[in-house]
Amino acid sequence: MAMVRLVACLALYTSLGHIPSSLAVILRTTDKIVWANEFEPIELTCLIESISTNNPRIEWKKIKNGVPSYVYFQNKIAGDLEHRAQLREPANILIFNTTRSDTAEYRCEVAAIDDQRDFDEILISLAVRVKPVVPRCSVPEAVTVGTSTELRCLENEGFPASQYRWFHNDEELPQDPKNSPKFVNSSYSINPDTGGLKFRRVRKEDAGEYYCQAKNDAGHAQCPPRMMEVYDVDIVGIFLKSFGAVAIFLGLAACICHSFRRGCFHKKGHNENNYSWPAQNDGDYRDADEGHFRHKSSFVI
User: Fold this and answer.
1) Exposed, middle or buried: residue 4 (CB in 10 Å: 0-12, 13-18, 19+)?
2) pLDDT at residue number 256
3) 21-129 CATH, one of 1.20.1260.10, 1.25.40.10, 3.30.2130.10, 2.60.40.10
4) Which CATH architecture group holds 136-231?
5) What is the reported pTM?
């Protein structure tokens, strides 16, 4: 009678989707979302809470861009983790030195043929943090007081994306200059996402050395310091340059007018007569038409 009741209870649990843990393989993990620093070890946990089968089949798969590939198959490490990982009891995967290419989803699968629910799986997301590289910085060598200018800073290797900070003479510039008595009169603004440092109106106090630092959860890197000079408006220099330009223009105009007066640019027109009279000998007093006149007189005779 007791056996009948046990069978009936098992049938009821099965029909309702409830199976006693002693008859089912059940997995869990300590973290479903895991972060790791590049080139450091990380362990993905696949803990077997309940199982009856002595030698279950354990497999790990890596899913990247929707495409699965084997990580642990037929009792050995496979794929791009070969020689870089090992299986640890009960079913954990230890990666010795993670790389940015290891960022993906990993699925632990356990099959137990002696259990009534003979299969379970658990999905773990791994994201590998990458330290920023030395950012590319752009600092103008010289600017004029009262003008606007922008300093730039950028790097593309870090993951997650870097946040940027600027330093002036080895002192960090606050994000909002109005919050600092020392920089309250400055007109700069910093974009921590793009690395831009913009000055609406440069002051003499803004001169000095500047460098930028890119930082994320994996570390930071900075570019070498660069000097930015700030000069006053050179009124005398501007006047002299303008006067020199006017003098050159007047000199060119005078040369052109002088050349016109000398006829260097004069051209003879197509309708202008350019004939010369033949030279006459001192002893010849004949009229120019004499020959024609004699011919006519002869013709009359």
Assistant:
1) exposed
2) 77
3) 2.60.40.10
4) Sandwich (2.60)
5) 0.64
